[in-house]
Design brief:
- There is one protein chain.
- The protein has 19 helices and 18 strands.
- Helix 2 runs parallel beside helix 3 (66-76).
- Strand 13 (267-268) and strand 14 form a beta hairpin.
- It has a five-stranded parallel β-sheet, with helices on both faces. A five-stranded parallel β-sheet has the order 9-12-15-8-16. A two-stranded antiparallel ribbon has the order 6-7.
- It has helices spanning 17-29, 40-49, 66-76, 91-100, 112-134, 152-164, 181-191, 209-217, 234-237, 256-265, 291-296, 302-308, 325-340, 349-357, 363-377, 390-393, 413-427, 432-439, 443-453; strands at residues 9-13, 33-37, 54-58, 82-86, 104-107, 143-144, 147-148, 171-174, 199-203, 218-219, 231-232, 242-246, 267-268, 277-278, 282-287, 311-314, 346-347, 382-383.
- It has 461 residues and is an alpha/beta fold.
């Protein structure tokens, strides 16, 4: 049986050889890989030379007893959980067990199913400890600019960024709110040939419609009330660099042909002027809206859509890159420690499990907010479940089997459908027409199903 096939690698320690053999046989029948020894000294030798996920030890043994063994293990391998078996449980013994770091305390002879359940939890905790241990050290997160992540979804983003950074073509970055679309724009600027030029950003949804034209193209003195001096627009300010238009889907329809002309002619006309001004910018735009639907509904010009969508980059939602959740959490903790002087150095295994289970409707922005809040409120060196916001600490998925690696046959049908739709969209680079054809759906049905794949936003996130 390979490591991947086993429920966990267990070391049983008891000076009763018959009990060791019996427990070993019972646990092996349940899918564990078991090694057993009859003294604590022999057990420590096994732990030093062999990969072990959890230890089960008797309390009363000749020589070094179970609590002393646990204390030795915890001092050298704090990531290795130890379960103690005893036929003589007392309050004093339980207190002593807690003090030395015992993972669990089970009456002897143990109910084998209960023991197996405890060992499943112990093995899972050991795996989380190992993953957490590796975060800051042996497996550093890959970074491109301020983008962080090792997941396959992010690797595809990095690959595309590397291929288009030096291009002059316009880029449209799509994705849900909070996925890091502006970080993509900044990475393109930083790693492209315009890096010595300015990076200028504006949120089209945040500027009043009456002022947006002046903000983009500039104005002359007296062009409108309160225009006491001439002012260059963002196109002029970004000359020789990158102009980032965030939430371009909110650009007012009357302004869209003027933007299209500016991009095509590389010239802008300030409000109130008869003279055009040359500008040389690379445009990067972003949106969390379905611009293809907006084009069909005549809320966004088709010619402008094709002009800005020369190179599409789709940012994955955090729920589709769950491998990165703990990497990002540790990154935000490290930043809190360096910038604010917080004493928190990492995550407890229980807190890590809650972060991995949560669906993150607010994506990376919500995770950052969560970690910064928890770091301020934390009472210990490692974040606990109590430090997390209530919505995350008490979160329960609709099925315990809905994890990133859960077998499709054990998921609710709606979850299987959701993942398949998202996988097809990823394969066709977000093209909903091709996705609908591949899925055998009309576009209206696909839009309706896509609307159901997005979790409801939680107030305050």
């Amino acid at each position: 049986m390979t490591v991947a096939d086993t429920r966990g690698r267990i070391l049983v320690v008891d000076d009763d050889r018959d009990l060791c053999a019996l427990l070993s046989l019972q646990l092996q029948r349940l899918g564990f890989t078991v090694t057993w020894r009859t003294t604590a000294a022999e057990a420590l030798e096994v732990i030093a030379s062999t990969e072990v996920d959890a230890v089960v030890t008797d309390l009363n043994m000749a020589g070094m007893n179970g609590l002393e063994l646990c204390e030795r293990i915890v001092s050298n391998r704090p990531d290795l959980p130890v379960t103690v078996l005893t036929a003589f449980g007392t309050l004093e013994t339980a207190v002593a067990a807690i003090r030395v770091g015992v993972y669990d305390f089970i009456a002897k002879p143990p109910d084998i199913e209960a023991l197996a359940h405890t060992l499943d939890r112990a093995v899972q905790q050991a795996g989380l400890h190992e993953e957490l241990r590796r975060l800051p050290g042996t497996t550093p997160p890959r970074r491109v600019g301020d983008l962080i992540g090792n997941s396959p979804a992010m690797q595809r983003v990095y690959d595309l960024l590397g291929r288009v950074a030096d291009a002059e073509a316009s880029v449209l970055v799509t994705g849900e709110s909070g996925t890091g679309k502006e970080l993509v724009a900044r990475a393109l600027h930083r790693h492209g040939k315009r890096t010595s030029g300015p990076f200028v950003a504006v949120n089209c949804a945040a500027v009043p419609e009456a002022l947006l034209e002046s903000e983009l193209f500039g104005h002359t003195r007296g062009a409108f009330t309160d225009a006491r001096t001439a002012r260059p627009g963002l196109f002029t300010q970004a000359n020789g660099g990158t102009l980032f238009l965030d939430e371009i889907g909110d650009l007012p329809l009357p302004l869209q042909p003027k933007l299209l002309r500016a991009l095509q002619e590389r010239r802008v006309r300030p409000v109130g002027s008869d003279v055009e001004v040359a500008c040389d910018v690379r445009l990067v735009a972003s949106t969390n809206r379905d611009l293809e639907a907006a084009v069909r509904e005549h809320r966004f010009r088709e010619d402008l859509y094709f002009r800005i969508n020369v190179i599409p980059i789709a940012m994955p939602a955090l729920r589709d890159r769950s491998n990165d959740v703990l990497l990002l959490a540790q990154h935000f903790l490290d930043r809190c420690r360096s910038e604010s002087g917080t004493a928190v150095v990492g995550l407890s295994a229980a807190a890590a499990r809650r972060l991995l289970a949560y669906s993150w409707p607010g994506n990376v922005r919500e995770l950052q907010n969560c970690i910064e809040r928890a770091a301020v409120l934390a009472r210990y060196e490692h974040l606990t479940v109590d430090d997390l916001p209530e919505r995350i600490g008490s979160y329960r998925p609709s099925s315990a089997l809905i994890g990133s690696d859960a077998p499709p046959g054990l998921m609710p049908l709606a979850e299987v459908e959701r993942r398949h739709i998202l996988r097809v969209l990823d394969m066709v680079r977000g093209n909903k027409t091709l996705a609908a054809l591949a899925l055998g759906l009309d576009r209206k049905t696909l839009r309706r199903k896509l609307a159901r794949t997005r979790p409801l936003r939680i107030a305050g996130t």
